[in-house]
Amino acid sequence: SLTAQESSYSITMDFPYVSDYVFRGIKYADDSIQPSIEFASGDFYAGIWINEPITNSALNEYDFYAGYGVKLDETWALDLGATYYYYPETPSGDEQFEPFVGVAGDLGGGFSTSGYYFYETEFDVTTIQFGLGHSSAISDTATFDLGAEYGIVSADGPGDYNYWSLSGTVNYAINDSAGAYIGLVYADHDISGLEGAFFYFKTGISIGF
């Protein structure tokens, strides 16, 4: 039936603005828009995420990713996938490939957690990242979400570092298929001689069907 066909997949679009683009504790760009679109069917998902700096197009980034979720039980799930990073404005058109595996679970009481292993093949960089989140309802149409991340980056040679972040986000459901959010993030790292301790602002609209 048409209803069954419509419910066999989903498409989610996100249109955020961030005052800084910070990835794994390191700031790569100032004010940016970061549109994305993701397709999901069953346990498979694939999408594209873009960083478009408002003032410097040389820092554009396109991330193509795909993955597959494997439910371990009613609470925990395994996530297997890979991301292809492409930087079209760099002189050499830099690109990187990063497979990943992770596990995520619901701890109850609004708490969730995750742990991921990433391996970037171009520069032989390994990242282990842990996450903890909590979501609480503040009205029938809004939630307040807290998040924390800690990561360990290990490179082939010098360049190892740790990073961490804390975030608070208010999410508001506009209707059954659209929502808006606004939040503040603190991100930092322990790289000597490189600027850290970033506070940045994010806001956007998400649409799913």
Summarize this structure as a short list of keywords or feature phrases.
single chain, 209 residues, mainly beta, 13-stranded antiparallel β-sheet, two-stranded antiparallel ribbon, 1 helix, disordered N terminus
The tally of strands reads 15
Order of helices and strands: HEEEEEEEEEEEEEEE
For the terminal residues, how far apart are their CA atoms? 17 Å
Helical proportion?
under 10%
Low-confidence runs of at least 5 consecutive residues: 1-5
On the 0 to 100 scale, the average pLDDT is: 93
Label the structural class. mainly beta
Q: Name the shape in a single word.
A: globular
Compute the CA-based radius of gyration. 18 Å
Work out the oligomeric state of the chains in this entry: single chain
Report the major sheet: 13 strands, antiparallel
SS element count, helices: 1
Strand content: over 45%
